[in-house]
Amino acid sequence: MTQTEEPTDATKQGWRFGSVEALALLLIAVVVFQGPISDVLSQAALATWATVFIAIVTQAMPFLVFGVVLSAVIAVFVPASFFARVLPSKPALAVPVATGAGVVLPGCECASVPVAGAMMRRGVTPAAALAFLLAAPAINPIVMVATAVAFPGNPEMVVARFVASLIAACIMGWLWIRLGRTEWLKPPSRPSFEGQGRAAAFWGSVRHDIIHAGGFLVLGGMAAATLKAVVPEEWLSAVADNPVLAVIALALLAVLLSICSEADAFVAASLSQFSLSARLTFLVVGPMVDLKLIAMQAGTFGRSFAMRFAPATFAVAVLVSVAVGAVIL
To answer: What is the pLDDT of residues 117-142, one digit of tens each?
Structure first.
């Protein structure tokens, strides 16, 4: 009697629309509609678009590459049991400690999801693992340095981003302790790099994150450049001059653009029509809630979890950003 093979995780997941596919689709659209696009974009507008796009990508790429390499080192070479050993046994105390671990164990949002899953598999309370998931991409040294470089005349943005992200991650961890239910969270079933040597896992992680995070950086830079070059200045000013609309618009933009946290500060800096508080919201929301993160969370922890966790995180991140911005900026 022959046994029926169980479908692997890869066959269950199937094809997913990611940044590479988005870029390919965009390039095809540009080729097909190059005539109408040339008519819409004047020579001056095209020059402005190219200048803004090249400036964003050129400034952000070194931070992106360094962050991707470092996150791969952490994901592959730092044992998951390390977290269980250093975190307090009480969940309420483990949450801020895990949140602070994002400072010394940085990683981009692409790496934070599998690391959080590994933490749960080693017995770390879900609240602490989720707090780390949110904090690590937002408060690590690479992101802080990138923010300082992007906002050279506003060093308070670095402090505001750090404080707001730290508070938002802690609040979400404590909210999970209070309101989270076991049935909402599907435990990760296996290690992220099972069956691979460390060298292969490291380079595989680097290649994956460079392709995906780099793709989203390009899309984000293109979107920011388009806002500068195509959207009439009076439209942007009308939104930017309304404090409520400005915050909501940039929060939603952060979700849609899905830019890697090592590079998002340069996109935020280019949106100079908006207040520092609105741009702070962009920087806090992006590493915690975006389209690629929602998809990764659904695949790792279950759709039921992602459908609850992502909207709650979005609301907390926006509220905390507004409060911190009012005090610091």
So the answer is: 767 876 789 999 899 999 988 998 88
Q: How many CB atoms lie within 10 A of CB 311?
A: 12
Token code pair at residue 328 = 């610091």
Kindly provide the b/e burial profile for residues 80-108, where b requires at least 16 CB atoms within 10 angstroms of the residue's own CB.
beebbeebeeebeebbbebbbbbeebbbb
Phi, psi dihedrals of residue 66, rounded to the nearest 5°: -65, -40
Least-confidence region, from 25-39, 244-258, 260-274: 25-39
Q: Is residue 34 part of a domain?
A: no
Q: Determine the pLDDT at residue 169.
A: 96
Give the residue among 77, 159, 63, 169 at the shortest CA–CA distance from 115.
77
- CA 4 to chain CA centroid, Å, is 40
- Expressed as residue numbers, the domain containing 222 is 42-189+205-328
Tell me how far apart the alpha carbons of residues 71 and 238 are, in angstroms, rounded to a whole number: 40
Work out how many domains the chain is built from and give that number.
Answer: 1
- Residue 267 one-letter amino acid: V
- The percent of the chain in helix, strand and coil, each rounded to the nearest 5, is 75, 0, 25
C-alpha span between 329 and 322 (Å, rounded): 10
Residue 157: inside a domain, yes or no?
Answer: yes
> In which residue are the tokens 């933490």 written?
119
CA distances from 152 to 44, 155, 156, 158 (A): 27, 6, 10, 10
Range 44-63 average pLDDT = 72
CA dihedral 105→106→111→117, nearest 10 degrees, is 40
The answer to whether residue 52 scores a pLDDT higher than 80 is no
Structural domain contains residue 79? yes
Tell whether 198 is covered by a domain. no
Q: What is the pLDDT of residue 1?
A: 45
- Contact yes or no for 133/165 (Cβ under 8 A): no
Q: Enter the tokens of residue 59.
A: 């400034």
Burial of 76 (0-12, 13-18, 19+ CB in 10 A): buried
